[in-house]
Amino acid sequence: xxxxxxxxxxxxxxxxxxxxxxxxxxxxxxxxxxxxxxxxxxxxxxxxxxxxxxxxxxxxxxxxxxxxxxxxxxxxxxxxxxxxxxxxxxxxxxxxxxxxxxxxxxxxxxxxxxxxxxxxxxxxxxxxxxxxxxxxxxxxxxxxxxxxxxxxxxxxxxxxxxxxxxxxxxxxxxxxxxxxxxxxxxxxxxxxxxxxxxxxxxxxxxxxxxxxxxxxxxxxxxxxxxxxxxxxxxxxxxxxxxxxxxxxxxxxxxxxxxxxxxxxxxxxxxxxxxxxxxxxxxxxxxxxxxxxxxxxxxxxxxxxxxxxxxxxxxxxxxxxxxxxxxxxxxxxxxxxxxxxxxxxxxxxxxxxxxxxx
Length: 357
Fold this sequence. Notes:
The protein is mostly beta strands.
């Protein structure tokens, strides 16, 4: 509460200008190369919830890559007077070309999020896409002229694209089918657009046999052309040994030659990386030896620094055997130098990082 009120007294444009100077002038002692750009993230630090995540307490912040100078961009949580019921804002993604943040919010009512955009200082927030059943986790193309996202309808989500004006809505993974309709393409979610703008990586269970129970589903990472054609399985496919666990949440490197992702093939979620064609899959994080691990371990949502030398992600921390909470970490692109950069007041969380420049 104190941090939020203090932020409101300083004009956001001025604060962000100061923050930009700090990013360039004051590198963190343990992260000499981390001082590139900024990191958008989601947190409930203004309204900590015992639920871990709640429908009306999550906000989008921006911070420097060492975790300093956090600035709140959205004000829809339970601590703010918003002219109606409080709401969430989360899942932010930055377009350098358009200088816009795309994000999801349930501010239209209910729990289903829709896609919104805003300026980097949080101004001019406006609805971009209103999709039947909801839409989530937008991701800009390299040009910023289009973005992809997934629908929120059960039992099947799909990857959609639209232009930055909200026109040209196209279902890439189930052409011609309405949101949520049963189909052969499985559940498709968490898209990430290649920096070369010619491909989109995403998560899907389309390979699961018909009738597979939810508890037995196996998510894998696929890539397709930006028009939805030529879908190729990258993990556990093409003659490779099938992955024993799920692979999800792909994130292209700035050069488009590698993809970071989450995998639990070793028994718990960790961050991995592979070449763009699915080869050379290597584990980056290893929290197996940590003395303290919560009951619901989660290490996911990788995002690359603009120079490709570091990766941010979130990890669930807490007391052994109890439900933990998310915090944001960074590391070098080879998995070394793992550093926690957020410290959230219990029971709050900070997660879903997105690195921008």
